[in-house]
Amino acid sequence: MSMSSSPPPAHVLLVSAPLQGHVNPLLVLGRRLASSGLLVTFSTVPHAGLKFAHGDGAAVAVGRGTLRFEHLQGGALWPPNDPRYCAPTAGGEMLLRHLEDAAPAALAGLLRRHSDAGRPVSCVVAAAFAPWAGRAVAAAGVPHAVLWTESCAVLSLFYHYFYSLADFPSNNPNKAAPVDAAAVPGLPPVATGDLPALIHAPENLIWRQALVADLRGLRDMASWVLVNTFHELERPAIDALRAHLPITPVGPLFEPENHGGDGDDCTAWLDAWPPRSVVFVAFGSLIKLSRDETAELAAGLAATGRPFLLVVRGDSNNQPELLPDDDGRCKVVEWCEQGRVLSHAAVGCFVTHCGWNSTTEALASGVPVVTFPAWADQPTNAKFLEDVYGVGVRLPRPMARDAVSRCVEEVMSGPEAAAMRARAREWKAAASAAVAAGGSSDRGVQGFVDAVVSLNGAGDD
């Protein structure tokens, strides 16, 4: 009697465009999938501007599974040291167009190599804004999911707009013009100025083209739409959008304990300050302030008299003379572990551009916010942080020092500050419960794991 060999373990390949804000949540998802017993391989297009805890070829044990790192390289892709990866040209347009042209062949080759090595890919999870990945995976006949890295509310707005399921105000100067609330089920009343920027962006903008391709893939090719959110945060939007898409909340994809080593320079500096005393200021990996904005921001923060930690990226064009002197009360850094900082007890306020990663990290850390949205989904996130989640105030444009200090004080010690802190603590508790064993997002992750194992046949005895 011959012994039949057991099938290889279920293998999930994670694929992302090489943008830090897309990579970070996908890596957290990868750790959660691996901890449930899957073999998980993470892949992106490597370059000097991306930060990873592990290098190409590394494999680390996570819970009952393994997380591997194997990047897309070679062929027509730029080499990892090519400066064009970090060039700000047209908001990343050159990079996105390059990936459209060169990444599909590299991904197809990676799928073949995995199969030849005896670890065929059971399912691919592609981060949003990488439609080239979905096309390559579909051509290879491999089931795939999309990790939507923005809010479910934003996804619903996009879906209803681009599939003409609702009437939206035209792109006019009246930012207060209302969107018909009844037309987008599950959303509160929003105005034109609250809409994500890509709704009214020019049709030839590469980000808009990628979004439209993503939406088509979500509807026509993806078997799962995993969303970096949790049911308690966006229940109405999630429940309503499930009539159109296979939505599964798996967030918040935020694990500050996995962000680096035991400590760093920022942590040591924060340790010296009392609880809820420090203002933390960071605007993400893409937004750049002008010289005037930097000067007004620095003056406004200094006027509060409060300690503050300010992140000014190393690729910024701002001059050192625009920044405050490091007198012990302020600290200016080029980069920090944002999750670690937000989770520190000394942080009492977060001045943020309202990217969705920053939004969910603030909520999961229980930190009230001052919002300063710029583009993309940030105006929508700011609207929800202020009016739906009740944990922040809006810093108006253009940035002015008096407004900076006024908004910070409103969040730190104003008449509504205690109520904001209380609501922030409630969201922190809800986020923790969602990802805990048996929580809403934990059940979503486990349901996806079970489906992948079933596809693979690895669950058979």
Rounded to an integer, what's the Rg over CA atoms? 22 Å
Percent range for β-strand residues: 5-15%
The first-to-last residue Cα distance is: 17 Å
Major beta-sheet overview: 8 strands, mixed
Question: Which residues sit in consecutive blocks of at least 5 with pLDDT less than 50?
Answer: 258-262
The helical percent reads: 25-40%
Average pLDDT for all residues = 89
What's the number of extended β-strand segments?
16
- Please tell me what the overall shape is: globular
Output the structural class: alpha/beta
Largest beta sheet: strand ordering: 3-4-2-1-5-6-9-10
Please write the string of helix (H) and strand (E) elements: EHEEEHEHEHEEHEHEHEHEEHEHEHEHHH
Number of helices: 14
